[in-house]
């Protein structure tokens, strides 16, 4: 895949909020800008990189501006007083369509986001403009629709980047009734390993995302199994405060129930 596309003129659009919080919230990890850029350079001839985020109002990502400037000066501040994440997506989409109109010489578009909001533009670029569309997304954040709209996919983990192009248009699932115990064990082990962490809180969302991504089981299957565990009070939900003061509905195992 890299060899086929390495000579293509390429523009890159990075949703830095998706990258930063995908790693921070799910893995308690930081973005590896240098490692990602090394991987990116194998994908094509990079004309431009645009990085988007609400850097003005968001102190956590604002501190990363300096390291992002080692990659590009095109850092777009998506300041939004209403703090709606969709606003950043809208600005990215607008810039993508502007690029399509103004520069037909671009052969490949790379988007760093797992958000399904980008599936329509990805499908448009690939199917109607004959462009190659690459996707980078943090593990557990990539929507199935966006995955299936892309030409290739790379999944970002704290330990590196994994080529998952072979999974485009595929979704491996299991028989829920037959293998429900298997899913229950995956979820219980995940919560048991993470509930003792002083800096990471397992929640419904990150448990579903990570257990699904790490074990190649659909999110719906994991979510339905987790709901049953909560209904049976094997897994408990309670409000917890993160080390940075944010309140989350965290998951923990019921120590009064034999598992």
UniProtKB/TrEMBL annotation:
Tell me what organism the protein belongs to: [Clostridium] cellulosi
Q: Which domain of life is it from?
A: Bacteria
Q: What is the lineage of its organism?
A: Bacteria, Bacillati, Bacillota, Clostridia, Eubacteriales
The record, for Pfam families, names:
NYN (PF01936)
UniProt xrefs under InterPro entries: NYN (IPR021139)
Q: Report domain NYN positions.
A: 9-151
Q: What Gene3D superfamilies does the database record attribute to this sequence? A: 5'-nuclease
Instruction: State the Gene Ontology terms under molecular function.
Output: RNA nuclease activity
Specify the protein name: NYN domain-containing protein
């Amino acid at each position: 895949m890299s060899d086929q596309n390495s000579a293509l003129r390429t523009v890159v659009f990075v949703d830095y909020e998706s990258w930063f919080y995908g790693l921070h919230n799910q893995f308690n990890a930081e973005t590896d800008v240098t490692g990602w850029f090394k991987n990116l350079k194998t994908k094509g001839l990079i004309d431009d990189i645009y990085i988007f985020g609400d850097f003005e109002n968001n102190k956590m990502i604002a501190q990363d501006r300096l390291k992002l400037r080692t990659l590009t000066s095109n850092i777009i501040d998506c300041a939004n007083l209403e703090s709606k994440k969709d606003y950043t997506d809208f600005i990215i989409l607008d810039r993508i369509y502007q690029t399509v109109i103004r520069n037909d010489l671009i052969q490949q578009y790379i988007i760093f986001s797992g958000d399904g909001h980008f599936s329509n533009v990805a499908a448009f670029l690939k199917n109607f403009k004959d462009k190659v569309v690459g996707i980078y997304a943090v593990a557990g954040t990539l929507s199935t629709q966006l995955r299936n709209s892309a030409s290739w996919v790379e999944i970002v983990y704290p330990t590196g980047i994994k080529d998952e192009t072979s999974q485009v248009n595929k979704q491996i699932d299991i028989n829920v009734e037959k293998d429900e115990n298997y899913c229950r064990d995956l979820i219980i082990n995940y919560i048991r390993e993470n509930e003792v962490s002083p800096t990471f809180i397992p929640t419904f969302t990150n448990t579903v995302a990570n257990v699904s991504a790490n074990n190649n089981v659909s999110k719906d299957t994991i979510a339905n199994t987790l709901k049953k565990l909560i209904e049976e009070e094997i897994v408990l939900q309670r409000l917890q405060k993160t080390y940075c003061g944010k309140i989350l509905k965290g998951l923990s195992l019921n120590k009064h129930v034999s598992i």
